[in-house]
Amino acid sequence: MLNVLSLRKFYTNNYLCYEIYAAYIDKGVIRLLRGKNIILRSAEKKDMKRISEIFNDPKVNLFDLNFRAGFSHEYMEKEFTDELKDALKDNGNDGFIIENLKGELVGELSYWRARNARNIYMIGISIASEFWSCGYGQDSITTLLKYLFLNREAVKVELIVRETNPRAIRCYEKCGFVKEVYLRDSDFTGGKVISYHYMGVLKEEFLARGDI
Amino acid sequence: MLLGSKTKLRALLKSDLEVLHKIYREPEIIRQLDTRADISVGLMEKKLESVNEHKHKGEWLVIEDLDGKIAGSISYTFGWKNDFSICDLYIDKQYQNNGLAVDAVARLCKFLFEEKKAVRIEAVIRENNASAIRVFEKSSFTHDGKRRKSVFCNGNYIDEVFMSYLAREYFI
């Protein structure tokens, strides 16, 4: 019932989300968010094999903040099933699969509530290395920001990125994120102590950009 | 127990909670540190139990002056890697402005750097809490930046100040 209600709310309250299509299935709500060259869709269990391949790619793993050496697809499937249990509660966290218009799985994008704040969300994104520098990251983050600000009452969206990942930082800045805190010496990787950037974008800043 | 020049830091006991509860419920303190409107002794007891259960996550300590009177509390938690946060620092009104907080922070930092191999110690403070910012500035913490509009307080979103103290600065 929860889903039917939230779906109705989804359709009636949000006149701005004309590009968001939702379909109700037995187990939950499948959301489709459309960007220019990508769609964000709900993850399925069968996607986890490809996702674990992406996470295990050394190039991707180098920038990952999860601090795991490897991800078996069984581990990912278990994690996915665990998350699915809470998905119906709508705790304010969800994950999407990024697909390009050819239907290829490009990566994943997820959001969750920041600690101690209801209306502040954090996001995390991973894109397969063969799709880097195609604009998919910017496209999908902008799409997600639009959803969070216009449909989930977010006032701010935040993320944490390694300073050794300039490609990602440039992408986030294009999406409107601003470097806020420089978390010095927060991480240890490749035998070196490195720092993080804490970045954030406020709702009014994002809406003022006018490209939504 | 950690012995500083003005303070003693020792483990919090259930019997201390009554005294600590009184200190914590000062409106200026609870508004800064808690999202609740009020807190009961029972709830503090629960919190203490959970801290004691998860020892690997951190410790909750009592700040005593050298006569053994409870002046306040301080705690630390582990972060993602070799980083720690200092949190829940508060001092009873009558003991404030005597340098007790600065001494307690300095002693705890010494412990974390020299015994816990901390690489980074972090403190996150609301920007309207000038006295706490001053305490950490005096304890050699550096400003890392501001997390903008991250706390909803008195009808407004306000910033949080991130401060940190690094091992490479401590061991010069």
Structure description:
The complex is a heterodimer of chains A (212) and B (172). With 212 residues, chain A is an alpha+beta fold. Chain A has one domain: Gcn5-related N-acetyltransferase (GNAT) (Aminopeptidase), CATH 3.40.630.30. Helix content of chain A is 33%, strand content 34%. In chain A, strand 2 (28-34) and strand 3 form a beta hairpin. The model of chain A is unreliable at 1-29 (pLDDT under 50). Chain B has helices at residues 17-24, 27-33, 41-53, 100-115, 130-138, 167-170; strands at residues 2-3, 7-11, 58-65, 70-78, 83-91, 120-126, 142-153, 156-166. Chain B has a single domain, classed as Aminopeptidase, CATH 3.40.630.30. Chain B is of the alpha+beta class. An eight-stranded mixed β-sheet of chain B has the order 1-2-3-4-5-6-8-7, with helices on both faces. The A-B interface holds A 65, 67, 114, 116-117, 119-120, 155-156, 158, 178-188, 193, 198, 200, 202 and B 35, 79-83, 119-120, 122, 142, 144-152, 157, 162, 164, 166-168.
Task: Offer a few descriptive terms.
heterodimer, A: 212 residues, alpha+beta, Aminopeptidase, nine-stranded mixed sheet, 7 helices, disordered N terminus, B: 172 residues, eight-stranded mixed sheet, 8 strands, globular
The dominant shape of chain A is globular
Query: Given the structure, what is the number of helices of chain B?
Result: 6
C-alpha Rg of chain B (nearest Å):
16 Å
Report the major sheet of chain B: 8 strands, mixed
CATH superfamily of chain A: Gcn5-related N-acetyltransferase (GNAT)
**Main structural class of chain A:** alpha+beta
Q: Please tell me the overall pLDDT of chain A.
A: 82
- What best-fitting shape of chain B do the alpha-carbon axes yield? globular
Q: Which pair of protein chains has the largest interface, and what are the residue counts?
A: A-B, 25 and 25 residues
Strand content of chain B: 35-45%
- Share in β-strands of chain A: 25-35%
Mean pLDDT of chain B: 93
Here the CATH topology of chain A equals Aminopeptidase
Q: Kindly report how far apart the N and C termini of chain B lie.
A: 26 Å
Number of domains of chain A: 1
Main sheet attributes: strand count, strand direction, barrel closure of chain A: 9 strands, mixed
Helicity level of chain B: 25-40%
Counted up, domains of chain B total 1
The number of E-state strands of chain A comes to 9
Specify Rg of chain A, calculated over alpha carbons.
17 Å
